[in-house]
């Protein structure tokens, strides 16, 4: 029990996915496994966090908000919009587009243009978190019985060494992660056993395109709930695998060894 | 799934995300009027740039990033919230935590007491399920600072909300 109680509790408190395998979190987890006090504190905090999450989401959405937002967006988007004329007030709720909108619109346009440029100028990398979300969405889709045919066939924009045979067998689909020409990721559905619940989604993305990939050491894994998922850096690629908890270890081993 | 290379229309952007953006804006700003202004700013900015959106999975965090920027401008205009000392807080007992119930309005009152620098990591932690390391990346702040703020803010919320409903034992 190298780590003390205060440090262990503090680290686990600020780490959402406590199964994350960085050394610090692992030490905190190791401590907790052997310390009943920390375990009970952590469980009570988890329960409190769950309550707090529900309460945070409990925000009443103002009546007519969507319509007001659309009206505001359209007023600014119209090229020759009469500057000082607010759109017709809506049946419910207060009109949001006021006189100061004309001046503010100019500022917003500048900010928007700047943000568009900033967005374009960013390094063309994707957050691991976004890939996780994408994998989870695709898993949900195939779990409903759909296939991935809505995605374009992978255009072979990059080669995954050692996996070309596998790629042909799985009907790889292409992902355009950065809006530029060509695929910069691929997605495949894998059936791990006869059981209908054993479907898995594997995303493969060159490590250079994944923000934070350098933090994923080879064979390092991150698990998330409720969509169990593992991200593995192997060779020059990041593998994001998403399936049921029971099948995850199989995929994890496969991904860790895929390019080895 | 729609063709992923199609950028969402303004109406789609608003329709799919306005509730989330409003909720986060409300929790950040603490008032319905400010939340609506912030939400409007977010979609005005986002819709101008929506042509560039090619990655639907990233839209949510992109919108929340625009919201955080808008909120930062907003709070520099409306500074003056009294600084709250978050030092030396005693954590509530486990039993008090277990028996407490979080009331949404009390939660907002507690969030309002937190300085924005502490509120933002909390919102990212809960709404975007980010750990302190990821929050530090998003806020472009040192990991140690973020960890300390998040830890103190969560501790403050526990103390504030658990003591609002003291354990009956
Ligand atoms: Zn301990």
Report on this model:
The complex is a heterodimer of chains A (260) and B (169). Chain A is of the alpha+beta class and 260 residues long. In chain A, 43% of the residues lie in helices and 13% in strands. Chain A has two domains: 5-121, no CATH class; 126-259, no CATH class. Chain A is built from eight helices and seven strands; from the N terminus they run αααααβααββββββα. In chain A, the strands form two sheets. Chain A has a five-stranded antiparallel sheet. Chain A has a two-stranded parallel ribbon with strand order 1-5. Chain A is globular, with a radius of gyration of 24 Å. The two termini of chain A are 34 Å apart. Chain B is mostly helical. Chain B has helices spanning 10-29, 32-49, 56-77, 94-99, 104-113, 116-127, 132-139, 143-162. The longest helix of chain B is centred in the middle third of the chain and has 22 residues, at 56-77. The interface between A and B is large, with 65 and 69 residues. The site of zinc ion has 6 residues of chain A, from α1 and α3.
Proportion of strand residues of chain A:
5-15%
Order of helices and strands of chain B: HHHHHHHH
CATH architectural category of the largest domain in chain B: Orthogonal Bundle
Q: What radius of gyration of chain B results from the CA coordinates?
A: 18 Å
Q: What does the average pLDDT of chain A come to?
A: 73
Quote the distance from N terminus to C terminus of chain A.
34 Å
Question: Considering the protein shown, what is the CATH homologous superfamily of the largest domain in chain B?
Answer: Winged helix-like DNA-binding domain superfamily/Winged helix DNA-binding domain
Strand tally of chain A: 7
Strand order of the largest sheet of chain A: 2-3-4-7-6
Uncertain segments of chain B? 1-5
N to C succession of SSEs of chain A: HHHHHEHHEEEEEEH
Overall, the morphology of chain A is globular
CATH topology title of the largest domain in chain B: Arc Repressor Mutant, subunit A
Give average pLDDT of chain B, whole number: 81
